[in-house]
Structures are given as C-alpha cells and as structure tokens.
C-alpha cells in the first residue's frame, strides 16, 4: 500500500492551481446581461427609435452593424451539463446560490462573480429573485453560502 504525504498533495494542488489561474487569464471579461445591454443601447442610440418606417437606414447593413456594436446585443447563459433538461428552476436557484457564495468568498467587487449574477438574472423570474432576497434579509434562505 502506498502512502502519500501532505507535501505531495500540496505540491500537486499548487501546480494544478497555477495552471487554472493561467487559464483564467486567457478568458475575456464577463459579458453584460441582456438588460444591461438594452440600457446601453437606449443611451447610445436615441435616434434609432426616431427613424421613420420607410427610412433607408432600416435596410443599410453598415448602419445596423454600427448600431449593434462589437459584441452584438444578445447574450445567453452558456450550456451547463449539470442541467440537461429544459427545466430551469434548479438551474436558476443554483446560480443564485453560486453568486452569493462567490461574493461571500471573494467579495462583492470581484469581477468573476458577475458571471453568476448575469446567469441567474437572465434565467430566474424577477419575482423569485425578490422572494429570495427577502429571505436572505430575514435569515431564512434555505442554502448556506460558506461552503
């Protein structure tokens, strides 16, 4: 039987964590939610709504691409293999809990936590989010964030 020392585990975890941190630097920042993109579009393109129905800009590809921006307007949550069915209740709840775990562990200003917030804001009905926020304030939310 082979026994491993604590130094072996620490060394192997250290090298694995270094690889993970190097990989995370390769990814770009977290995209904004659909609601945030619409708000930016409203501020940026006030003349977009003022166009007449027969205006030639409706049919100009260059004009529409300029209005859309570099990333496009739509963003969706990426596919998560933990939720192969189309029922979003558990998916929504888990990302809400993941967001609060992230801000508990890393702090509210951490940029990486924004991804979880974007996913639950896009997946969850606003009524559920209000209920969960009220439960958090009252201290009766059914999940722990310190794990």
What attributes does this structure have?
2 domains; 147 residues; 59% helix; Arc Repressor Mutant, subunit A; single chain; mainly alpha; 7 helices; elongated
Q: If helices are DSSP runs of H or I spanning 4 or more residues, what is the number of helices?
A: 7
| Average pLDDT, all residues | 75
The rounded distance between the terminal residues' Cα atoms is 32 Å
What best-fitting shape do the alpha-carbon axes yield?
elongated
Gyration radius from CA atoms, angstroms: 22 Å
Q: What's the CATH class label of the largest domain?
A: Mainly Alpha
Major sheet summary line: none
CATH T-level topology of the largest domain? Arc Repressor Mutant, subunit A
Provide a short characterization of the protein structure.
This protein has 147 residues and is mainly alpha-helical.
Helices and strands in order, then pairings?
Layout: H1 6-26, H2 34-44, H3 46-49, H4 61-68, H5 89-106, H6 113-123, H7 126-138
Helix pairs in contact: 5-6
Report on this model:
It is found in: Mitochondrion. The chain is mainly α and 147 residues long. The protein is built from seven helices and no strands. The chain has two domains: 28-75, no CATH class; 80-147, Arc Repressor Mutant, subunit A. Helix 5 packs antiparallel against helix 6. The longest helix has 21 residues, at 6-26. The protein starts with 5 loop residues before the first helix and ends in a 9-residue tail after the last helix. Residues 13-17 have low confidence and may be disordered.
